[in-house]
């Protein structure tokens, strides 16, 4: 009886093979292209947690997310650090930068075939030779300078922070008062040399870009942000009415939606 069952099984397998049908166990299900990893880069006077609301919304959409810790020491060094972060990622990448973080993603993405899109969130998108300071002063409207404290580093450069009592009005006017106070206390200083350093070739020349522009930004003038978005031939520009420079904190839905569009 056992021999008869074995013969029956062998006969069934032979019939399947002769019919050109591949057994299910041997079939390979089609694989979807992986979602890109979204790398978020904060700017001056902020830190990685400023992306928390955006991260939660992107993860709900199924995207892997990394919020890089931007050193804020020198433009060249910050770009080199971000390149090291990107080197550890397999597959496609979307880069999003806030404020000075736009300077960093523009440099780090250049020549990297993994980077498929750039999202500038209240951010600088520099041309070769332009600095963050130059771009912020290209058009009137920034009132950042008088709100800053400078801490000498002993090498002729300074660490810059926003005075805590002026932080909310300057940086985060549409963020709840208690949360803005925490942001002021945890802000990371930027070395002034980083803001004065000229940029290399911008990756936005060859990589498609998206922009979120907060209409009530007091750090980077609205006119300057519109100028950079137009110059980059942005695929989409979202102007967030009434939003402060801290738009990643105050408007995470709008920011995450724009980044998700860039990641499609």
Number of beta strands: 9
Decide which structural class fits the backbone: alpha/beta
Distance N terminus to C terminus?
59 Å
Summed over residues and divided by their number, the pLDDT gives a mean of: 91
Shape: globular
**What is the architecture of one domain at the second tier of CATH?**
3-Layer(aba) Sandwich
Strand order of the largest sheet: 2-1-3-4-8-9
Rg over C-alpha atoms, rounded to the nearest angstrom: 24 Å
Largest sheet: 6 strands, parallel
Which ranges are low-confidence, i.e. pLDDT below 50, for 5 or more consecutive residues?
1-31
List the secondary-structure elements in sequence, H or E.
HEHEHEHEHEEHHEHEHEHH
Number of helices: 11
Structure description:
With 264 residues, the protein is α/β, with parallel strands linked by helices. The chain has a domain at 37-139 and 194-263: Rossmann fold (3-Layer(aba) Sandwich). The protein has helices spanning 2-18, 52-60, 75-87, 101-109, 132-136, 164-171, 177-186, 192-196, 222-231, 247-250, 252-263, and strands spanning 37-41, 65-68, 93-98, 115-121, 148-152, 158-162, 190-191, 209-214, 236-240. Helix 3 packs across helix 4 (101-109). The radius of gyration is 24 Å and the shape is globular. The relative contact order is 0.17. Mean pLDDT is 91; it is low at 1-31.
């Amino acid at each position: 009886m056992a021999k008869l069952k074995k013969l029956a099984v062998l006969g069934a397998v032979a019939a399947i093979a002769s019919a050109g049908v591949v057994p299910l166990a041997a079939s390979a299900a089609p694989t979807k292209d992986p979602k890109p990893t979204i790398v978020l880069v904060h700017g001056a006077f902020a830190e990685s947690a400023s992306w928390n609301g955006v991260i939660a919304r992107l993860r709900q959409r199924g995207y892997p997310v990394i919020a890089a810790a931007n050193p804020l020491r020198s433009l060249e060094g910050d770009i080199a650090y971000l390149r090291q972060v990107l080197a550890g990622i397999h597959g496609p990448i979307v880069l999003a930068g806030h404020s000075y973080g736009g300077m960093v993603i523009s440099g780090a993405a250049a020549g990297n075939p993994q980077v498929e899109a750039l999202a500038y969130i209240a951010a600088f998108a520099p041309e070769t030779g332009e600095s963050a300071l130059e771009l912020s002063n290209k058009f009137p409207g920034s009132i950042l300078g008088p709100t800053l404290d400078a801490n000498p580093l002993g090498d002729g450069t300074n660490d810059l922070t926003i005075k805590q009592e002026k932080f909310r009005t300057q940086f985060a006017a549409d963020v709840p008062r208690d949360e803005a106070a925490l942001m002021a206390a945890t802000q990371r200083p930027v070395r002034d040399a980083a803001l004065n350093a000229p940029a290399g070739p911008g990756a936005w020349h060859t990589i498609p870009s998206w922009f979120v522009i907060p209409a009530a930004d007091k750090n980077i003038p609205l006119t300057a942000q519109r100028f950079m978005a137009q110059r980059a031939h942005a695929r989409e520009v979202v102007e967030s009415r009434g939003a402060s420079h801290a738009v990643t904190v105050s408007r995470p839905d709008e920011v995450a939606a724009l980044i998700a569009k860039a990641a499609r």
